[in-house]
Design a protein that fits this description.
alpha/beta; Arginase, Chain A; globular; putrescine biosynthesis; Ureohydrolase_dom_sf; Ureohydrolase; metal-binding
Length: 291
């Protein structure tokens, strides 16, 4: 599937009618084939779009309006149910098309494994790429129960591809096993535990001028703010701190070249606060990171 093919479903608020003049392309990756606890993140992209209808179009944080940035919501990639290898290949092919056209890819997940082919595609164009990873989990496993294609492995794969010293993780409060934290210490990966905004602000000057890919797992938020996720972890950050982090990146000198927001599983949150928060984060990303 091509990102410029006709799409008749729901779109993120203020999406342009065509892709030609869009600087950013929003696309959904409705995959949850490898989750180890609660499935349902494949429903995340469309629910984020639906929640965006309730957004104000002006951001008082950034003093920008959604009319100030051109983006096109291309809909969801039609991924083959239950086939992670083929799904990853399709996401990579899709991202390659967006990057080739010089547009900013903004992916909506889906489980966190969908980040891996996006980083691969971005790295092909930017060999000096750095990755900012905001998450409750380290995602540094080599495999999960013998399966290397797992939502617990994308950051390990990124480290092995671009060099662990180019990966910066924030908000980590769960790893899965001790080996993940040992790997972080020994590999040169930067890891800030429990917090996001403060350590991120300290690191951003070191990344000035570099191309940066940002991946945000919604479970970095405390379940009080985002219960609608597959692997919720107590002790997380607030929605306000997540916004502070997004704005810190927007006001820095890093060159954000792509991003994703993953692991929204709306069925576990009848209050809809998770998708409401996610849609607001997407608005701020569009206004702050798409130059």
């Amino acid at each position: 599937m091509r990102f410029d093919e006709a799409y008749s479903g729901k779109v993120f608020i203020k999406s342009r009618p065509t892709h030609e003049d869009a600087k950013a392309i929003i696309f959904g990756m409705p995959m949850d084939w490898t989750v180890s606890f609660r499935p349902g993140s494949r429903f995340g992209p469309n629910r984020i779009r639906e929640a965006s209808i309730g957004l104000e179009e002006y951001s008082p944080y950034l003093d920008r309006h959604l009319e100030d940035v051109s983006y096109f919501d291309a809909g969801d990639i039609p991924l083959p149910f239950g086939n992670p290898a083929r799904s990853i290949a399709m996401i990579r092919e899709y991202a390659d098309q967006i990057i080739e056209k010089g547009k900013f890819p903004l992916g909506l997940g889906g489980e966190h494994l969908v980040t891996w082919p996006l980083i691969e595609a971005i790295y092909q164009k930017y060999p000096d790429l750095a990755v900012i990873h905001i998450d409750a989990h380290a995602d540094l496993r080599v495999d999960y129960e013998g399966e290397p294609l797992s939502h617990s492995t994308p950051i390990r794969k990124a480290c092995e591809k671009i060099g662990a010293e180019n990966v910066y993780s924030f908000g980590i409060r769960s790893g899965g096993d001790r080996d993940e934290f040992r790997y972080a210490e020994e590999s040169g990966l930067y890891m800030a535990k429990f917090e996001v905004a403060k350590p991120l602000k300290e690191i951003l000057p070191k990344l000035a001028g570099r191309p940066v890919y940002v991946t945000i797992d919604i479970d970095v938020l405390d379940p009080a703010f985002a219960p609608g996720t597959g692997t919720a972890e107590a002790g997380g950050i607030s929605s306000r701190e997540m916004l502070e982090a997004i704005h810190a990146i927007a006001q820095s000198d890093v060159h954000v070249v792509g991003a994703d927001l993953v692991e929204v599983a709306p069925n576990y949150d009848p209050t809809e606060q998770t998708v409401i928060a996610a849609s607001k984060f997407v608005r701020e990303i569009l206004l702050g990171w798409v130059k």
